[in-house]
Amino acid sequence: MKSSLTIVAATLLSTLSLSVQADECGEFTIADMNWNTASFMAYVDQFILNEGMDCSAELIPGDTVPTGTSMIEKGQPDVAPEMWTNGIKAAIDKGVADKRLRLAGKSFLDGGEEGFWVPDYLVEQYPEITTIEGVIQHAKVFQHPEDDEKSAFYGCPAGWTCQITSGHLFDALKLDDHGFEMIDPGSGAALAATIAKAYERERPWIGYYWAPTSVLGKYNMVKVDFGSGTDVDEFRNCTTQPECASPKVTMYPSAPVYTLTTEAFAQNEPVAFQYFESRGYTNQTMNELLAWIEDNQADSEEAMYYFFENYPHVWKEWVNADIAVKVEDAL
């Protein structure tokens, strides 16, 4: 009898020990990647995990390809908060298949967003301009800065991948047949400046842009509907390929942006991994945050505190009430 009780007690203690270990959070590393959104995310993640969930998360420098490669080959860092998976899709797919990597939740719930955009005040004047047919109908309003006989379309800067996609779609939509000329702005900053200048003067503008960005946080732009839906195969096999000779019309597909972890992290840190499965930002929220960061010349830590103070309705959805209280107390 005594032996049976001993066995039962030992079993209960073992089960309890495993339960406690499952609820604990250990030491791990998070890549502080070298662009605004990813670095901001890393600071928010570290604060919630350390202060709210008693983890010991350390930030280390990172970038897309070096971080992804290191995670596959060396198992470090443990977490990449914002990985645009299309950029190194083959490597990530193989890493997942080989059980070296794990995709957690979406960093951007809407995915990375691209398209041709017009300002909202122009839509108020010409409601039909939200469609490519409406744009063509009102082509003359998009005055070219150097040629009165042409209409201006602002493309992606030379050398960027989006120069290929926006050029192919410009051709597929036959915009040149309707008097449009694609203007190379020269740089990302110059392209942003054309939107800012048009918006401040309430002038017509159409061109390529993407989200999340500070520009779309500052200026209300409306994405033009091509009326084609999204053909992912066409986009991958032709729209993105420089040598594609006969591009067809397709809307830009959403670019998948995930939090990437090592498989070891996913197995050893289930509490933290569950957090990353829950955490995600809408493009609208991130656009607003990027606009605030730019206007205030804020670093990632300052942006983190601003976010906690002004977006509790966002981050409290990721954690339970007890964790939220601990985070607020730490703040």
From TrEMBL:
**Descriptive protein name:** ABC transporter substrate-binding protein
Spans traversing the lipid bilayer: none
Domain of life the protein comes from? Bacteria
Domain called ABC-type glycine betaine transport system substrate-binding: residue spans: 29-308
- Stretches of the chain forming a coiled coil according to its record: none
Give a yes or no for keyword Chaperone in this entry. Answer: no
Organism from which the protein derives = Vibrio ulleungensis
Q: Which Pfam families match?
A: OpuAC
Task: Report the leader peptide range.
Answer: 1-22
